[in-house]
Amino acid sequence: MAQLKVTPGRPYLKDNSDAPGDVSAIIGITGDTEGSLSITFSADSIKEVVSRMLGEEVMEINDDVKDAVGELANIISGDARRELEEKGLRLQGSIPTVVAGPRHEIKHIGKGPTIAIPFETDAGPVTVEVCFNR
Amino acid sequence: MAQLKVTPGRPYLKDNSDAPGDVSAIIGITGDTEGSLSITFSADSIKEVVSRMLGEEVMEINDDVKDAVGELANIISGDARRELEEKGLRLQGSIPTVVAGPRHEIKHIGKGPTIAIPFETDAGPVTVEVCFNR
Q1: Taking a C-beta distance cutoff of 8 angstroms, is the pair A42, A21 a contact?
Q2: Cβ <8 Å between A99 and B104
Q3: B residues 64-83 lying closer than 8 A (beta carbon) to A
Q4: Least crowded by CB within 10 Å, which of A128, B12, B93, B129?
């Protein structure tokens, strides 16, 4: 949608203070296990992504930007859940919740570790995080 | 747990820019409908709440504070889901995700309105928000 070049980086176990961002979307996961998934952008990277999606320059973190981040989280969550379903794990996803605030930090409160997957894009860095109870 | 006097205020339909806070926990809801629930504190109010819970003064938004906010969200989500289950609505809750960042704003991306329930406590204001797809 945004005609972005996206390069996945090496996943790592997240320490709580890693990967602050300016706009995030969070989706809760339930089903065969409980978890949560987040996607976090810097303000610059999400403004660039949404500018390309809409074909006009986005200057601030407005409702269009928040809705786009929620939609991107839905797409990622849906793809991941379909892949896990093929492996026998049935999961449901909640609606997204979008958080906007400069340099916020996210902590997933699950029994398992939080895995962070960094992506480099030509609009800037993006981080996807997932955590499950088991 | 925190021996707080809590006074619920009048629920209202949330406009997106309402109710910024410094520490929030978000829980995704799935089942007969999808939704999300959040609880948002100011930094001062959550430090006071957790200081009372732990019996020692908490000076910063550390891991103890984040875990406590997640646990409070679990309790509220569990109580609400039990009440809705008595009315025939079966819902599951995800693990909590905690967001810490000064003056962040939350937007729930569901098809229905977001209902905000403000609470006054002697530690400061707290806001609970819920949104469902239907």
Answers
A1: yes
A2: yes
A3: 66-67, 70-71
A4: B12
B1 in a domain, yes or no? no
**pLDDT digit string (tens) for B32-59?**
999 999 999 999 999 999 999 889 999 9
In a domain? residue A1 = no
Look up the domain containing B48 and give its range: 6-132
pLDDT in tens, B56-104: 999 999 999 999 999 999 999 999 999 999 999 999 999 999 999 999 9
Nearest Cα residue to A124 out of A68, A57, A46, A56:
A46
The CATH number covering residue A93 comes to 3.40.1550.10
Measured N-to-C along each axis, helices B63-86 and B43-54 cross at an angle, to the nearest 10 degrees, of 90
The answer as to whether A15 is a domain residue is yes
| Interchain proximity A102–B101, CB inside 8 Å | yes
- pLDDT tens profile A36-52: 999 999 999 999 999 99
